[in-house]
Amino acid sequence: MAVKTYQEYIASLRQLKSTAYMFGEKIENVVDNPRIRGGINATGATYELATSEKYKDLLTTISPFTGERINRFTLPPQSIEDLVARVKINRLLGNYVGTCHQRCTGLDCLSALSIVTYDLDKKYGTHYYHRFLDFLKYMQRNDFTANASVTDVKGDRSLNPHEQPDQDLYLRVVERQKDGLIVRGAKVHQTGSLSSHELIVLPTRAMAKGDEEYAIAFAIPSDTKGVIHVVGRNSLDTREIEGVDCGNVRYSKYCPTVIYDNVLIPWERVFMCGEIDFSGELVNRFSAYHRQSHGGCKSGKIDVMTGAALMMMDYNGSAKVTHLREKVVDMIHKAETLYGCSLAASYEGRREPSGTYFINSILANASKIHEGKDMAECIRLLIDITGGYVADLPSDRDFQNPAIAGLLKKYFQGAAGFPMEKRIKMLRLVEKLAMESADSISDIHGGGSPQAHRLTILRESDLNSRKNFARRLAGIEE
Amino acid sequence: MAVKTYQEYIASLRQLKSTAYMFGEKIENVVDNPRIRGGINATGATYELATSEKYKDLLTTISPFTGERINRFTLPPQSIEDLVARVKINRLLGNYVGTCHQRCTGLDCLSALSIVTYDLDKKYGTHYYHRFLDFLKYMQRNDFTANASVTDVKGDRSLNPHEQPDQDLYLRVVERQKDGLIVRGAKVHQTGSLSSHELIVLPTRAMAKGDEEYAIAFAIPSDTKGVIHVVGRNSLDTREIEGVDCGNVRYSKYCPTVIYDNVLIPWERVFMCGEIDFSGELVNRFSAYHRQSHGGCKSGKIDVMTGAALMMMDYNGSAKVTHLREKVVDMIHKAETLYGCSLAASYEGRREPSGTYFINSILANASKIHEGKDMAECIRLLIDITGGYVADLPSDRDFQNPAIAGLLKKYFQGAAGFPMEKRIKMLRLVEKLAMESADSISDIHGGGSPQAHRLTILRESDLNSRKNFARRLAGIEE
Amino acid sequence: MAVKTYQEYIASLRQLKSTAYMFGEKIENVVDNPRIRGGINATGATYELATSEKYKDLLTTISPFTGERINRFTLPPQSIEDLVARVKINRLLGNYVGTCHQRCTGLDCLSALSIVTYDLDKKYGTHYYHRFLDFLKYMQRNDFTANASVTDVKGDRSLNPHEQPDQDLYLRVVERQKDGLIVRGAKVHQTGSLSSHELIVLPTRAMAKGDEEYAIAFAIPSDTKGVIHVVGRNSLDTREIEGVDCGNVRYSKYCPTVIYDNVLIPWERVFMCGEIDFSGELVNRFSAYHRQSHGGCKSGKIDVMTGAALMMMDYNGSAKVTHLREKVVDMIHKAETLYGCSLAASYEGRREPSGTYFINSILANASKIHEGKDMAECIRLLIDITGGYVADLPSDRDFQNPAIAGLLKKYFQGAAGFPMEKRIKMLRLVEKLAMESADSISDIHGGGSPQAHRLTILRESDLNSRKNFARRLAGIEE
Amino acid sequence: MAVKTYQEYIASLRQLKSTAYMFGEKIENVVDNPRIRGGINATGATYELATSEKYKDLLTTISPFTGERINRFTLPPQSIEDLVARVKINRLLGNYVGTCHQRCTGLDCLSALSIVTYDLDKKYGTHYYHRFLDFLKYMQRNDFTANASVTDVKGDRSLNPHEQPDQDLYLRVVERQKDGLIVRGAKVHQTGSLSSHELIVLPTRAMAKGDEEYAIAFAIPSDTKGVIHVVGRNSLDTREIEGVDCGNVRYSKYCPTVIYDNVLIPWERVFMCGEIDFSGELVNRFSAYHRQSHGGCKSGKIDVMTGAALMMMDYNGSAKVTHLREKVVDMIHKAETLYGCSLAASYEGRREPSGTYFINSILANASKIHEGKDMAECIRLLIDITGGYVADLPSDRDFQNPAIAGLLKKYFQGAAGFPMEKRIKMLRLVEKLAMESADSISDIHGGGSPQAHRLTILRESDLNSRKNFARRLAGIEE
Q1: CA–CA distance, C219 with D343 (Å, rounded to integer)
Q2: CA-to-CA distance for A302 and A358, rounded, in angstroms?
Q3: How far, rounded to the nearest angstrom, does the alpha carbon of residue C446 sit from its chain's CA centroid?
Q4: What is residue A2's predicted lDDT score, i.e. its pLDDT?
Q5: Is B320 touching D (CB cutoff 8 A)?
Q6: C424: Cα within 13 Å, side-chain hemisphere
Q7: How far apart are CA B309 and CA C311, in angstroms?
Q8: Strand partners for C152
C-alpha cells in the first residue's frame, strides 16, 4: 500500500547507507543516533498521523497520478482544497511535534517542479515534465520523504555564481556524461536530509547569463555516492546525546550541510539543465509554497508555546495575573495572523497550466514577514510568562542525586495541587521551545531571508492601480 | 427594479424629513449640505458601482428571500461565497472612496439579526424572525441603506445600564403602548445616519439581570419623530463647508450623535425586547461581522494611502530612495495582513441554524487588532514619505491670490515632468488621509474598542487543547 | 532691562510690519489675528515664565557676553549646566503650553552659529564670528525671538541645488551689492515666523562644489522688505478663527512658508557666504541641537497627553481599568525615554573651541528617533483611552443651542461627581492633541526627517571599536 | 594593597571550600571547572581592568571609608560622578567580556544596604549601619566580590511568604541563637555565586504583617557550612565542558540555585531582622540600582553584537547591503537608548541621608523596560544579518576531521580577503550571543520581571501634575 506507517517509514530509512558526520565523527547508525532520531520521529509523525484513525482522512487523499491513496505530503496541490489542507495539516503537525516536522520542503519542491517543468517544456520543447511525473509517481507509490536541497553556501554574497573565485560555491554541473551529469557544490541548512529518502536539488536564486551551469534541478537518493551529510552544532544538541534534559521528550530537529562531491545524476532525474530564465521562477515558486507551509506549522508551534505558557501560569500560581493573560492574547493573535494570512493565500490560489494550484504569493509572504518578527516575540513573551528558570534549571540528574534530590524537590514545588515533577518537565519544554536553535533560526531565515519576503511583496503588488486610486480621489486628471 | 442607481438613491434621500443639527444650527437641506454630501456620496458609491457595467456582477446577486436581483449590501450572507464577497467589495469601495463608505454597518446589523432572531424564537417561541424577514425584504426591494445604532453614550463606564444615576444613558424602553414601544436614549458615532433610510438599533453590550428594558432591538426610518441627529465636529470639517482645500475631492465621512427622544417603535419593527440572555449574543455577532468588514475597507484605504505615498515620491523626486520604498513595503504588508485575516475569517465561516453564514470570529478579530495599531502606523509612514507639507500647505485660495500666486507656483514645483498643480492636489489628499478624524478614529474604536477585540480572541480560543499539546510534548501524563 | 515680560513681548511684535497672507487674504493685524495669536501666546509663555516668581531662576541667567541677566532662549550654552537647562526648560514649557512654544529654533541657530562661525574664521581668516557676536548681543539686550529659516522647498529631491531647473528652489545669493547681498528663495515650515523679531537663515543641507551661492547664512528682521509669510492650512485652523471648539484654550501653532523675494541682506548680518565645506557642519550642528530640544518639549507634551488620558479615565468612570492603566504606563515610558536620552545628550556634551557647549549627537538623535515613532503611538494610545469622541463631538455652539442643549447635556454626562462641562472641555483638548497637524507633523519631520536621524547615528558611531570587541571575543587575532 | 589583580582574585577563590553540584555530580575543583571558569574570568575582568594601565583610573577610586584606593565595585556611590562611573564601567565591561561580568549585583546590594540600614537605624534605634560599615570596609580592604542572594524560589506566586504550605519557600529565620540566626531557604538565578567571596542576602519583596521572619538581610562567605550551590543547565553549557565550539573564547556565565540549609548567620553580619516596613524599601533600592547597572552592561553587549553583525557583513560580502545597514542602525539605536536612559538616571541622582547617592528610579526603569524588549530584538536582528549559520554550523571537530576538513574549508569560504577560519569563529560567537540562555534570560528577568519595571514607573511618576497640566490647557477651573 502506498501510505506507509511510522514503522514502515523507520524500516525504509534503515535501508539507506548515507554518509554522515557529526561533531568530528562518522555516524554509523543514523536511525538510532539519539541526536538524529528526534528529527526522524518528527517526520515520522507525518506517517503516524496519516495512518491514524483520527487524522487519516485529513492527511491522505487519492492521487490523480497513480489512482491510489497517498500521503498528502507527496501530492502537488490539485485544487484549492488541497492548498488549504496543506496549511491545516501543518498546523496540526506543529501542535503534535512542537517543532519542524521536516517533510514540507520536499513537497514544496515537488509542487514547484510540477508547475515549472511543464512551463519550461512548453517554451523549449524539452521533456522535463514527463521525467518529473515519473519521479512523482515513484515518490507517491513508495510514500517517500524528500528534502529540499536549495540553499547554496554562496561564498561572497556580492558576486554572482560564476563570478566567485571558487566556481563551486553554488552547486553546478562540472561534467556531462552519457549516463548523466556530474555535479559539485554544497547545500546548507538541509532540514531532515537524513530523514529523507530523496534529495531534490533546485537552484537557490535567479541566474544570469554566464550562470548556465548553475541553473540545474534534479533528484537523487539521499545516500547516493559522493553525497556527504555533516550535522552541525545546535544549542541543546548534546542533551539528546546524553539522553537527559531534552524538554521535548519526543521530537527534535537537525539540519545538516550536504556536500555534493562529484555526484552523478542520471539523466532521467534531471528536471532543469541550463535554462537560466526559469531558474528564478523555480526558486520563487518553491519559496512561495514554503512560506505558505510555515504559516501552518509555525502557528501550530505558537499554539504549543501558548499551551506551555498557560501551564506555567498554573504551576506558578499566576493563572489569574492580568498582564500575563494579556501576553497570552498577544501570542494567540500572532499565531492566528500567521495562520490567517496563510489560509487566505491558499483560498485565493489559482490553477497553473500544468494543473497544479499555486497560492497567492503576496498573502503567503505577508504571513512569513510576520513569522520573521513574531516568532521571536512569542519566545520573548513565553520567557516573560514563565520566569527565570528558562535558564539555570538543575539537571534531571541533580534531581536524581541523593545528596541534593530532597532539597531540590522541596524548593521547586510551585502552586499546590500540581506535582513538582510536572512543573520541572514543563520548564524544560519551555527551555527547548525558547532556546533551541535548529528550529528557531528557521523562523527568520526559512524560505528565504526576511528581506526576500519583502521584495516579493513589492514585486507582486500592483502599484499602478494604487497610484490611480489616489489620483482619482485627489482630483488629478490623467 | 430593486437595485437603485446613484441618482435614485439621492432622490430617495430627498424624501426624508430628518431632524438634524450641526455647529449650533438646524440643517434644513441635508442632501445638499456640503459637510454631509461627501458622506452621502461615499454611500452613493455602493449604488453607483452596483449599477456599473464593470462591478454590477460583484455587487449584486439574487435574493433567496425576494427572488429579485439586489444590492449585496441588503443580503445577510447565505454562503461562504457571500462572506468572501463582503471583504472584496469592501476593499474595492475603500479603493474607490478612500474613506468609509458607511453602508456596511447596516448590513452587519441585518446579518446579526438574521441569526439571533431565529435562535431567539427557537428558545422562547417568539416571532421576531418573521418580523425581521419582512423588514429584510422591505430593505431589499427598496435597496435601502441602514445605519447601525449600537453604541450608547454609556455615562459611567463602571456601572451597568440600570445602575446609572440617569436611567437613559443606555437606550431603553420607557413605555409599552398598544401600537408599540416608547424608547429613550442616545446612540453615538452614528456613521452616515443621515445617508441612511433606516436606523437599526441593537443593544451595545451584554445585559445582566435588571437590565431587561435595555435588551432591545428594532428598526425605524431615520426621520422618525423624536429622532434627532447632531453632527459633531471633525478635523477638516469646515473645508467642506468653505468648499476649498478638501483633499478627497469626492467623498467624506460624518458620524452624528443620534438622540431618541421618546420615539415610538411599532411592534412589527421590534426584533428583541427584554431577552437579556441574547443581548450579548446580538452585539457580538454584529461586532464580529463588522470587524470582518473593516478588514476589507481599511485595507482598501491603505491601498489609497500607498498610492498617495508612491505619487508623492514621484512628485518629490524621491521615487528611488531605498528607505522610502521599504516604508511602502510596510504599508502594503499591513494592508495585506488586514485583508488576509479577514478573508480567512470568511472562508472559514460556517452556516448558522437560520441559514445565514457567520465568519470565524477569531480570525476577524485578528484582523481588527492589526487595524487598531497598523492604520495609525500607515498614517505615520505616509507622513514620513510625503514630507512636512502634510501640514502648513497654503490654501488653494492663496494659489489664486494674484499677489502671491506666481511666487507660490514657482516655489511649489517638485520634480520636473509633473505639473505643480498635481503635486498640490496630492499633498492635500495626504493631509485628508492623515489628519481627518471622522474616519481615522474608527480605525481604533470602530467595531468595539481594541480591548474588546482581544477579549474576544481569548474567549473564543481553545486554551485547553493548547495546554494538552504542551503537556504531551513535555512528557506529562494526564 | 534685558528680560522682557509677556506684555513687552506683545508690544514689541506690534512694532513689526510683516507682510503676511493666509487663506487667500492679506493679514493686516498679525498680533490680534486669532489664528496667529495662539502661536504668539505659546512663544509668549517663554517671556511670561522668565519673569514669573516661580521660574525666573530657571529661565534666566547672566550673559557672559553682555554681563546682564537674559532669557536663556538667547544664550548659546556655555556649560553642561546650560545644556541641561535647555531640556528641562523645554519640558516645562511643553507642560505649560501643550504644544510647540516655537522659540527653540532660533536659539538652536544661535548656538550652531556660535560654534561654526568661530571654526570658519579659524580656517579661512574671515570675520563672521565677530559679526555674529554683535548680533547675539543685540538679541540678548532686546530679548528677541528668532526663527530658524532652514528648510528650503527643495524642488526635485534627487538633484543638488544648482542642478535644479529653477535655480531658486534652494535659497541663494542672486547678486552681491556694496551694502549687502540680494537673496532669493523660500523656506518652509517656518514655525512661529510671525511671532519672531528676527529670521536666521541657514543652508538646509551640505553643499557640494557648484553650490557656492547656496552656502549662505544670515539674519534679518522678520518684516524686512521682500519677505513674505504665507500661513498655510492646518487641520483645526478654522476653530481659532471662529473662536469655538479650540481644545487648547490658550495656545496653538502655525508654520508659514516664508518667501525671500530679492531681499537685501546687509553685510554685517552675513555669517557665511560661499564656504561650502562648512554648510553641512552648520546644518548638522543646528539639527543636533534641535533634536535635543525636542527631547524636552515633546516629553512635556506627552505629559499633557498623559494627564488628559488620566482625566478622561476619571470622567468616563474607567480610572481603575487595568488595560487602560497599562497604556498610561506606555505613555509615561515613552516620555521618559525621549527625556532621558536628551538629558544624557546634554550631560555628555563637550566644549567647542568657541566656548559654546555642544551636545552628544548620538544620544540626541537616539531621542529623536524615538520621537518619530513614539509620539504617534502616544496619540494612538490617547485615542484608545479616551474613546470615540475624539471625533464627532458636538460643537460648543450645539451645547448653547436651546433646541438641543438640554438633551446634549443630559446625554454627555459621564461618571457622577464630574460636571459634564469639564468632560466636554477635556474631550476637546484630546481632539486638539490628537488631531492637530501643525504640531504633530513636527514629531516626525522636525529637525530633519527620521532617516536623517538614523544616518547621523550611523555616521557618528564608532563601528571599528565594535568590530574589535567582537573579534577579540571570537578569538580572532588581528 | 586593596586592589587585587586577576591572579590575586583567582588565588583568593582557591581558598574557598564551596559545596557545589552540577549535572548530577559534586564539583570538586570549582576554579578550574571549565563550565564555571568562563564565569570566573568574566568577573576576573573587573580585577584585570582595575589593575591595567589604561583603565585603572576609571575602575578605581579612593574610599572615603578606608582612605585607600579601592576597586569601584566595592564602593556605594558617594557622588553623581560615582553614579555615572557605574554605567560607563559597565558598558566597558560589556564590551570587554560580551556577557554578564557578574560583579554588579554585589555592589548593588552594598549600595542599597548603605542607604536602608542608615534609615532603619534612624527609625528604630538599631545598629545595623555600623555593622554594615564594618562589612563594607572588609569588602573594600580585601577587594572581594559579593553575590546578590535576592530571588527566592517563591512556590505559589499568589500566596505571601508565610501563607505558603511549605514555610521555607522564601528564605527565613528558623531559629535565633546566641551567636546568630539559623536561616533556611533557597535563592535562585545566583549569577556568579561561585565566583564570589561573599553572599549578600536581601528579601525578594515587600513583606506584610505575618512575614516578619522573612524580612531579613545579611552577608556570609559563599562557602559557609550549609550553603549548597547547584549549577543548572544552560543552552550551550556542554560546549565549555567539551572545550569546543564555545563562541566566546574567554568568558561565560552561570547562575546556580543556592540552597541555605540551616545556615548560621553571626549577629555581626545581620543587617535587617524582622523590620517588615523596610523590606520593600531594601529590595526596591537594590532593584533600581541593578536596573541602572544593566543600562551599561547590556548596551555594552549590544555593541559586541553590533560588531559581530558588521564583521559578518564583511565576511559574507554583504557590507554594503542597505537593509542590513539599516538593521545595524536599529541595533545601535537600541544600545544608545539603554545607555542614555541609564546615564540620565545617574546624572539626575540625589544624595540620601547616609551620604550614598541614589539614581533617578523612573529613568533607570525606563532603560530596563527597553532592555526587556530590545535585547531580544537585537538578537533577532543579529540573526537576520548573519544568516542561517547561527544554527547548524559544523563543529570545530569536523573542521579537524581529515575525512571532511578539506571539503568544509572549501565550502565555508566567504568573501575573498577574509580567511575562512575567522568567519567560522565569528559565526560561533554569533551563536553564543544569540542562543546562550544564561545571559539572555536576564535581559528579560534580571532586576525583576518586566511588569515590575512598569509598576515602578507608574508608582514613581507624578500623575497629579500631569492631570493639572491638561486641566489648565482645557480651560477647566479647579
Answers
A1: 37
A2: 26
A3: 7
A4: 86
A5: no
A6: 22
A7: 36
A8: C187
Would you call A226 exposed, middle or buried from its count of C-beta atoms within 10 A (0-12, 13-18, 19+)? middle
Contacts of A320 in chain D (CB under 8 A): 158
* Spatial contact of A196 and A178, defined as CB atoms under 8 Å apart: no
Left, alpha or beta for D417 (phi > 0: left; psi -120 to 50: alpha)?
left
Read off the pLDDT of residues D388-441 as tens digits, 9 standing for 90 and up.
999 999 999 999 999 999 999 999 999 999 999 999 999 999 999 999 999 999
Test C157 with B397 for CB contact under 8 angstroms: no
- Contact (Cβ atoms closer than 8 angstroms) between residue B384 and residue C444: yes
The answer to whether residue D322 neighbours chain B at the CB level (below 8 Å) is yes
pLDDT at C477: 77
pLDDT digits (tens, 9 = 90+) for C148-197: 999 999 999 999 999 999 999 999 999 999 999 999 999 999 999 999 99
Chain A residue numbers touching B332 (CB-CB < 8 A) = 362, 457-458, 461
* Nearest neighbour of D449 by CB, restricted to A151, A384, A407: A384
pLDDT tens string B26-72: 999 999 999 999 999 999 999 999 999 999 999 999 999 999 999 99
How far apart CA B250 and CA B242 sit, in angstroms, is 15
**Tens-digit pLDDT profile for residues A174-189:** 999 999 999 999 999 9
Rounded CA-CA distance D336/D333 in Å is 5
Instruction: Note the ipTM here.
Output: 0.97
Query: Which amino acid type is present at position A285?
Result: R
In C434-453, the residues whose Cβ lies within 8 Å of chain B are 434-438, 440-442, 444-445, 449-451
Closest CA in chain A for residue B247:
A474
Least CB–CB distance from B425: residue in A97, A248, A474: A474
Q: What percent helix, strand, coil does chain C show, rounded to 5?
A: 55, 15, 30
Give the pLDDT of residue D59.
Answer: 98
DSSP state of A395: P
DSSP B169-217: SS-EEEEEETTEEEEEEEE---TTGGG-SEEEE--SS---TT-GGG-EE
pLDDT at D477 over 90: no
Residues of D in contact with B323 (CB under 8 A): 322, 326
Q: What span, in angstroms and rounded, lies between the C-alpha atoms of C51 and C40?
A: 17
Chain A positions in Cβ-Cβ contact with residue B347 (cut-off 8 Å): 84, 343-344, 347
Top residue of A87, A341, A360 to mutate, by most chain B CBs within 10 Å, is A341
- Mean pLDDT, chain B, rounded, equals 97
Asked if the C-beta of C463 comes within 8 angstroms of chain D's C-beta atoms, the answer is yes
For residue B428, what is its C-alpha cell? 492635500
pTM, 2 dp: 0.97
Give the cell for residue C371.
520621537
Closest residue to A363, CB basis, from B310, B340, B454: B340
Which residues of chain C neighbour B411 with C-beta distances below 8 Å? 153, 168-169, 185-186, 257, 259
CB-CB under 8 Å, D323 with A156: no
Report the distance separating Cα A215 and Cα A209, nearest Å: 10
**Looking at chain B, which residue has its C-alpha nearest residue A310?**
B467
Distance CA C150, CA A18 (A): 69
Size of interface B-D (CB pairs under 8 A): 6
Q: What is the DSSP string of C127-182?
A: -HHHHHHHHHHHHHHHT--EEEE--B--SSTTS-GGGSSSTTSS-EEEEEETTEEE
Residue ranges of A 16-35 with Cβ closer than 8 A to chain C? none
Range list of H helices, A273-360: 279-316, 322-347
**D254-270: per-residue pLDDT in tens?**
999 999 999 999 999 99
Cα(B438)–Cα(B252) distance, rounded to whole angstroms?
9
Q: Which of B320, B321, B322 to mutate to test the interface with D (most CBs of D within 10 A)?
A: B322
